[in-house]
Amino acid sequence: MKDFMNNEWKSECIACEIGKGNIIPPGGIIKKTENFFIQQDLETPLKGFLVIVSKKHLKSIAQLTLDEVTELTNLIYKSRLALNEISDINEVVIIQEERSSHFHVWLFPRYNWMNESFENSLTDIRKIMKYANLNMKNEKNIKEVLSTADFLRNLMQS
After folding, report:
1. Closest among 46, 57, 42, 59 to 1, alpha carbons compared
2. CB neighbours of residue 7 within 10 Å
């Protein structure tokens, strides 16, 4: 797998390796808790596209304890509040699929520029990600993605 900065990662489970501290994702870890960590999405250079990842290797929210679900819900809430501080985000779609090999939740931001070419629907999220991967891997945008990750890290440390 390659991240949006073209670093190539070879791992059976990249999320487990990040959780152990063996791999540092672009933008670093934004926040760590007992059972989860938050990072900028590895593959898509879209500022504020956050991923909340379980430190345990599991697939489903149904495999979490009630305390872990409470911790996760608090992280989703605090992450969404933090994304309110990025002025050009219009809304955020929160997604969790069980098709992935490692449990994670996406907080996918929607910006005005997306309205020109994409419908505001779940089906267009993959199209937006593909567009960003093909058209937004430039120095200016990557700097903005990384500085947004720093901003969110500083905001969420309290």
Report:
1. 42
2. 13
**Residue 12, both tokens:** 């059976």
Find out whether 96 and 105 touch, Cβ atoms under 8 Å.
Answer: yes
In this prediction, residue 158 carries a pLDDT of 65
- What pLDDT digit, counting tens, does each position of 121-136 carry? 999 999 999 999 999 9
Region 63-82 average pLDDT:
98
Element (H, E) at 104: strand 104-111
CB of 10 within 8 A of CB of 98? Answer: no
Query: How many other CB atoms are there within 10 angstroms of residue 93's CB atom?
Result: 13
Q: Give the CA dihedral 109, 60, 122, 132, nearest 10 degrees.
A: 50
What pTM value is reported for the model? 0.95
- Which candidate, 79, 47, 72, 92, places its Cα nearest to that of 156? 79
